Amino acid sequence: MSSALTDGELTVLGLLVEQPRHGYELERVIEERGVRAWTALGFSSIYYVLDKLAKRGLIEATSAPSSGKSRATFRATVLGRELCAAATRDALTTLTPMRARVLIAMANSPGLSDADVVTGLTRRLEALREELLDVQAARCRQAPLPTAASAIFDYSEAMLAADISWTETTLGTFAKETAMDKYDIKKVHRVLYSPPSKEFTVVDVPELRYLAVDGRGDPNTSAAYANAIEALYGVAYALKFASKKALGRDFVVGPLEGLWRADDPSVFITRRKETWEWTMMISQPDWITDDMVRTAIDNVAKKKENAALGDIRLHTLVEGTCVQILHIGSYDDETPTLDRLHNHYLPDSGLTFNGDHHEIYLSDARRTAPTKLKTILRQPVKTA
């Protein structure tokens, strides 16, 4: 028998069984009791429902003032009371159908990036928390409540709390997977980016790809060097955002790295920086293409002019066997370590130079005290 009444019809009929009411009073009670938290019943639909119930003989008008239908008072008929009681008994045993739209969204979510799913679930969580606060506020406004009304609020709060719990758990899972899927060269190649600081270690460096720009001169005073660093980071972040948006693949922008070269390697020990040639680099995931780099360069150039942008390229570096160590301290204090590497460790190990001196800057020099800077010193080698 309950199938003969929609949720909206049963709600309005129940309120009229409780006592005769006109349309505006029904709206007030529905609003005050927070009925819309558990049934879809808008103000404009109240009169539509009243018409349907009246045509079926379930309610009747007790008065129809000259001002019009808007103030007509309705009451339940005998038939309406009987049907309301039967439908209510049936509704007490009826399970709530699982038709939440979010379930359709989750079924379709593989077509979105994890970032989009996280954004959507975050907004859902905020809305659920706001709705729970609204229901709790409505309950407080009407306290103390009769047992039945209190049970209604209990149910609404329990359903919202359960939805909040589910959303928090699902959001946490997706956020964790998104973080795990984010490419980070320092984690993928942990051994290469976490050497000890007390002793030299030998590592095998695979082929890696970088954004790169070449230059010459003292990095402390060269305008070309400053331009190169600014251009590298600008393009690196443009690529990160473009990759995330277009491909749904995110990555952590890697640390600044530098290849340093000179005809005489001893200049690195004597710190004659004006004679240094350099290639500054930031690592890139293997899915970054030349076309993506060119587009990123163009986009950065539209925002700010920088002569170094025209020199940036996607560079593949193959270093192979290398010796490396972590240096802690200022860049100018690298001399003793490099002297030990060049004049003691390499000769004693039967090794010699096989490529450019490579430095990886794990610290931000703008925010880190010189004595706490962390720099990986890496030297490609071969058998002497």
From TrEMBL:
Organism domain of life: Bacteria
Residues in Transcription regulator PadR N-terminal domain copies: 12-83
Family annotation (Pfam families): GyrI-like (PF06445), PadR (PF03551)
InterPro entries per UniProt: GyrI-like, Reg_factor_effector_dom_sf, Tscrpt_reg_PadR_N, WH-like_DNA-bd_sf, WH_DNA-bd_sf
Ranges where the GyrI-like small molecule binding domain occurs: 199-381
Protein name (Swiss-Prot/TrEMBL): Transcriptional regulator, PadR family
